[in-house]
Amino acid sequence: MMILEYEAKAMLRAVGVAVPDGSLIKPGARAPRVREYPVAVKAQVRSGGRGKQGGVIRANNAAQLKAAAKKLFATEFNGEKPEMLLADPWLAIERELYLSVTVDSAAGGYVVLYSPKGGVNIEDGPPPARYAIGPAWKFRANELRSILEPVESDYRIRERVISLAQRLVDTAAARDCHTIEINPLAKLADANLTELMALDGKVVYDEWAHNRNADIEAQRQGELKRAHKLLRASMDMGHMYVKLDGNIGLISGGAGMTMGAMDMIRDCGGKPGCFLDVSPGPASARGYKPAFALLDGDPDVKVILVSVFGGGTQMNRVARALKETLAVRKSKKPVVFRLDGTFVEEVPAIFGTFGAHNHATLETAAKEAVKLARHAK
Amino acid sequence: MSILLDQTNRVLVMGATGNYGKFFMKDAGSYGTTIVAGVSPGRGGTDVDGVPVFESARAAVAATRADTAMVFVPPVLVRAAAIEAIEAGCKLAVITADEMPVRDMIEIRAAAQANGARTTGPNSPGLISPGKAKMGFMPSFCFMRGPMGVISRSGSLSYEGSKRLTLAGIGQTTVVGIGGDPVKGTTAGEALALFHNDPETKAIVYLGEIGGVEEIAVAEYARSQGAKPVAALIVGKTAPPGKKMGHAAALVGSKADGYTAKTQMLAKSGVYVCSGLPDLVKQARAALAAS
User: Residue B84: left if φ>0, alpha if ψ -120 to 50, beta else—which one?
Assistant: First the structure.
């Protein structure tokens, strides 16, 4: 789970990374105040590409600041309205660098990524230098130095980057972060400021460390609070949901199988309306009711496809849970079923008691869902 | 043969007296898995269906010569249980738990390396060598013995994929769930190396997803001298960028993470790339025919 830039910068500051002395602007603030002008007013959102969408505005005085705040609070960035603005002093930059720490399968743990050319177009440049560490305690400054030598010729910057990298690796491990990214990490034009400064910060928490990290638990609670009521009920069951732009609501189990079913819907000429993996939740009506309520309440969803292939999850139990769920369901949106897995042989008899049909394959189920969606108004 | 697992593995179950542990001992035991011990602190001296339960992995290994651990404890306890089993002498620890902090898996992986052991998972259904033994909770009826090695990042997709292979008469040497987390006990590249050295495995089916770096290792293997033929299905062509699709590693953060980049890279490396699930059997057959 990604946290906001100002939260990430607070974390960086706490571990001794230099960050600009910015001011927070809350929604509804009448006369936002900053320490000095000019400032960069930055929308605090989680989606990427903010700069390219006009999410950063320069303000030279109080009037411009007020106008910028008004505009940014009214703008949606990939469907997300800023909860907060950050006004950072506008600093003259000599060079922009890129530094991040993330977890990586091939490394079996943490990696450091560094590029001497940071900034908004980092993806278009050559891939960054990569130092594979594994567990945090295997970080060796000399190993990173030998990797950076060919790409960073200024030894003063190189040495600063190495000590910052070590700090970020330690922080990622101690505070359970998947990613800590600084882009840009800036060498400022002011020759008196030799410290490299984090002008932006991105931190992705490991949400499953919530038991041992109160900040992560607070972020999880915040995520629940931001979700609308129907989604919250589903999230409370442990369901994982991503809204998509199609009209076939998909209830499935397992991340891979759910994506497989999404792809199948498209291959049959339809469009999936969501990724909804209910497998972390209970395989009972208590689990399925909020999933149906969520999709029934979404006006974009015209048809629901239930596709579950269970190993540990027993299909006779799922079939009975669906029967119980549909018995009290008010929506008339058509539902297509495809259950397979342990005890699937008992499903037709259970479905027969409420007139449902279980498709033998995902192909036929997806085709029917697409056909029904085409005829739906 | 098969990889990692057959009837000769002597299995101890960490968390033997919980619901998962008890179900596993019955289900996997009847399938053919040799289960010799359980470990449950506070329950030492008791038994589960005749299998003795011990206070510690060390005591269990000493008494039963267990060499393989099935870890069935809650996610926050997995690190402790897996490392205990590894340091007691287990050469393989199978982890199925999801919702596990990634730092814990990093430490488990390092402990396994330091002790010459291996783990699989987490966030995985386990593994099965059809007709021989299973670890975890894969539904047995989806699998049959045969020449195909299967590697999967996703549990239910491995059932769906394996069932399609089985119905088409293509059996499996071993099906390994490497899991959906960003740090794995066994990576796709490591699983490929194991299948490469297994004489019974003639070809390999890889079931992957968008996001992460596993597919790079699959492409590298396919390009290598003397590689066994590989067929691959990548799911998530309809996944939007920047959103985590259930699995922590299934996130399109950059172009290289996306469906098009991955499938193009695999196809260029000589992998039989499936256009979707319905195409899986055809590409698997093509891979087998090329072996």
Answer: alpha
Q: How far is A190 from chain B (nearest CA, A)?
A: 34
Architecture in CATH of A22-89: 2-Layer Sandwich (3.30)
Cβ pair B160:A362 closer than 8 A: yes
Average pLDDT over chain B, rounded to whole?
95
Structure confidence by residue, pLDDT tens digits, B156-199: 999 999 999 999 999 999 999 999 999 999 999 999 999 999 99
3-state secondary structure of A190: coil
Report pLDDT for B228.
98
Window 244-303 of A, Cβ < 8 Å to B: 244, 253-260, 262-267, 272, 275, 277, 279-280
Asked, as a colleague might, if the bond just before B122 is cis with ω within 30 of 0, I would say yes
Q: Which residue from A173, A255, A256 is facing B103, i.e. has the nearest CB?
A: A173
**Is B247 one of the annotated active-site residues of the chain?**
yes
Check residue A377 and give its pLDDT: 65
| Residue spans of chain A under pLDDT 70 | 377
Contacting A residues, span 182-221, partner chain B, CB-CB under 8 Å: 206, 208-209, 211-212
Residue ranges of domains in chain B, CATH in brackets? 10-120 (3.40.50.720), 139-289 (3.40.50.261)
A298 neighbors A273 (Cβ within 8 angstroms)? yes
Element (H, E) at A234: helix A229-236
- Residue A105 has its nearest CB partner, among B99, B212, B254, at B212
ipTM score assigned to the predicted complex: 0.93
pLDDT digits (tens, 9 = 90+) for B70-119: 999 999 999 999 999 999 999 999 999 999 999 999 999 999 999 999 99
Global confidence as pTM? 0.94
Please give the Cα distance from A126 to A84 (Å, whole number): 34
List pLDDT tens digits, range B214-243.
999 999 999 999 999 999 999 999 998 888
With an 8 Å Cβ cutoff, is B164 touching chain A?
A: no
Bond before A184 cis per omega within 30 degrees: yes
The per-residue pLDDT for A47 is 80
Q: Does B255 touch chain A (CB under 8 A)?
A: yes
Domain A93-209 has CATH 3.40.50.1260: no
Give yes or no for a contact between A237 and A276, defined as CB atoms under 8 angstroms apart: no
The fourth-level CATH superfamily of domain A228-375 is Succinyl-CoA synthetase domains (3.40.50.261)
Burial B237-248 (b: 16+ CB within 10 A, else e): bbbebeebbbbb
Residues 6+ apart with CB under 8 A from B275: A267
CA gap B274, A306 in Å, rounded: 24
Maximum pairwise Cα distance, chain B? 57
Domain ranges of chain A: 22-89, 93-209, 228-375
